[in-house]
Write a structure and sequence with these properties.
heterodimer; A: alpha/beta; five-stranded parallel β-sheet; B: 202 residues; 6 helices
């Protein structure tokens, strides 16, 4: 069975970096969003299994997305991939329900480990 | 001006390199000040010498500026300006927690600027397999003329420059500091080459 994946980042390069890092054996159906508001629109109308989420974005940032998911009780596994590596920020996203915090630029082995840990591959 | 314009992909790539560097610099700042730093999407624009003076003039009235040059391989170089509002520089002593007789406010501002500049640029450089060296940071006396004069003294050709503006907002203390990277025309071309190399990998 394939997983539905949403990659949300305002940078095209960063979205490609995530896309390139997804393991081959993982059958996925991938969509992308360029800011938090776009991502929430998709998350409200479709079932998304895994969301890879950037934090610093225009329109609506990653924290806003996590808060939105919580407020609207939308069930989705979120892996935050961000350059904002301050410990306080990492704690904040985990408190808001993210599965893990991964630092940018995302490393393939780290991403794969995290997907394994949470049973996606 | 058109000849130097970065296309959408190049701009995006540069912005992402800057994002990663900015994230680590703000992490250093947060640890140093034991606080949280709020990050915004950085702005990147091309400016000519004339508009550079004007923008600095209108945006940064009554400023304290620390200037530090950076030099990497492959002709990547420029000048980093750390810009503080005067009201913030008064607060810095409290923030940094130095004893009053330990260091002057000026020395503290130079310290902090150097941490931000070198962390940012080291991370930026490592992403493009480069390495930076730095000139000693200098605090320019307040007032625009000293900034303009200082820029003119540098051996760069400022006919055209890339202005990257990053705001570090320390929320607890409502303290802001802007990092402005000025990259001369020749270095922009070199950076573009490096960016194209990264984009080719994707």
């Amino acid at each position: 069975m394939s997983s539905s994946v949403l990659i949300c980042d305002d940078s095209n390069l960063a979205r490609k970096q995530v896309l390139r890092s997804l393991p081959e054996q993982w059958t996925v159906n991938v969509q992308t969003a360029t800011n938090g508001a776009e991502a929430l629109d998709i998350l409200r109308t479709q079932e998304i299994d895994v969301l890879f989420l950037d934090l610093t974005m225009p329109v609506l940032d990653g924290l806003g997305v996590l808060q939105g998911l919580k407020d609207e009780s939308i069930d989705c596994s979120v892996f935050v991939i961000s350059a904002d590596i301050q410990p306080e920020m990492q704690n904040k996203v985990l408190e808001l329900g993210a599965k893990a915090f991964l630092r940018k630029p995302v490393q393939i082995d780290v991403l794969v480990n995290n997907l394994q840990q949470h049973g996606f591959i | 001006m058109t000849a130097l314009n970065l296309n959408e992909d190049q701009q995006d790539c540069l912005q992402e390199l800057i994002n990663v560097a900015m994230g680590q610099a703000s992490d250093q700042l947060a640890r140093y000040l034991d606080t949280f730093v709020y990050l915004k999407v950085p702005s990147i624009e091309q400016v000519n010498a004339e508009s550079l003076s004007t923008t600095l003039n209108t945006e940064e009235k009554g400023i304290a500026v620390v200037s530090q040059g950076f030099f990497g391989y492959e002709g990547i170089r420029g000048e980093a300006l750390l810009v503080y509002q005067p009201k913030d520089s008064d607060r810095l002593a409290d923030l940094l927690g130095y004893e009053p007789d330990e260091l002057t406010v000026e020395e503290q501002i130079i310290d902090l600027s150097s941490i931000l500049t070198t962390t940012f640029l080291n991370v930026f450089a490592s992403q493009i397999d480069n390495q930076m060296s730095y000139s000693a940071p200098r605090l320019l006396s307040s007032g625009l003329h000293s900034v303009s004069d200082h820029l003119e003294q540098l051996s760069f050709n400022w006919d055209m420059a890339l202005k990257v503006k990053i705001s570090y907002q320390v929320t607890d203390y409502s303290f802001n500091c802007d990092m402005i990277l000025l990259i001369p025309e020749s270095a922009i071309l070199n950076i573009t080459t490096v960016i194209d190399r990264i984009l080719d990998e994707f």
